[in-house]
Amino acid sequence: MLENSFDITKTEAGVDEAGRGCYAGPVVAAAVILPKDFHHRFLNDSKKLSEKQREELRPIIEKEAICFAVSFINNEEIDKINILQATYKAMHQSINKLNVQPELLLIDGNRFKPFPGIPHQCIIKGDGKYASIAAASILAKTYRDEIMNNLHLEFPDYGWKKNKGYGTLEHRSAIEKFGLCSYHRKSYNILPATQNLFK
């Protein structure tokens, strides 16, 4: 069972991202402040849930959260500032959009660029330990999946409806066959040496 609070005396926001390791599409970050007594029977790290469970949880989290925010950094900006800085930027944008200012940020992972005026705690595998981080992971994942499903309609050859932009065999084979499109992260050096044309 997930912990509801890292520090019961403080208003906490859980923060997580989705899509950092993908070949295509945006990186998405979410920040969520949950009530201290929030509980749902299968709230957990989004990667441990089925797509159906994530989609069921998303409106519940959005309704029950004290507040939440989701932000996107597209592939072009990722290429300009690198994926780590893009991830921090998406996280900061989400924190900044919260209509209640948290007193503590719970960050999934082991690195974070400090947000001005709010202390933070990095927690490795935090999305499997704290409810607010798990909730943020679910929002980030479901919002990003929705984006990739829509981009799939524009570029169906890459199988994004299924692989969501990750470097699966299907995706890599499509890149070899069709080259890169406008939503691929060019800085990732994923284009085979024999290809040099962008769609």
Entry keywords:
199 residues; alpha/beta; Nucleotidyltransferase, domain 5; five-stranded mixed β-sheet; 6 helices; 5 strands; 37% helix; 15% strand
Structural notes for this entry:
The structure is a single chain. The chain has helices at residues 51-64, 75-81, 83-97, 131-154, 160-163, 169-178; strands at 12-18, 27-33, 67-73, 104-108, 120-123. With 199 residues, the protein is an alpha/beta fold. The chain has one domain: Ribonuclease H-like superfamily/Ribonuclease H (Nucleotidyltransferase, domain 5). It has a 5-stranded mixed sheet with strand order 3-2-1-4-5, sandwiched between helices. Helix 2 (75-81) crosses helix 3. The protein is globular.
Short description:
With 199 residues, this protein is of the alpha/beta class. Helix content is 37%, strand content 15%.
Enumerate the spans where pLDDT stays under 50 for 5 or more consecutive residues: 194-199
CATH topology: Nucleotidyltransferase, domain 5
Count of DSSP helices? 6
CATH superfamily: Ribonuclease H-like superfamily/Ribonuclease H
**What percent strand?**
15-25%
**Quaternary structure:** single chain
Give the biggest beta sheet.
5 strands, mixed
* Major sheet strand order: 3-2-1-4-5
Shape: globular
Residue share in helices? 25-40%
Task: Quickly give the CATH architecture.
Answer: 2-Layer Sandwich
Q: Encode the helix/strand succession as letters.
A: EEHEHHEEHHH
Global structural class: alpha/beta
Integer average pLDDT: 94
CATH class term = Alpha Beta
Rg over alpha carbons: 17 Å
Number of strands: 5
Number of domains: 1
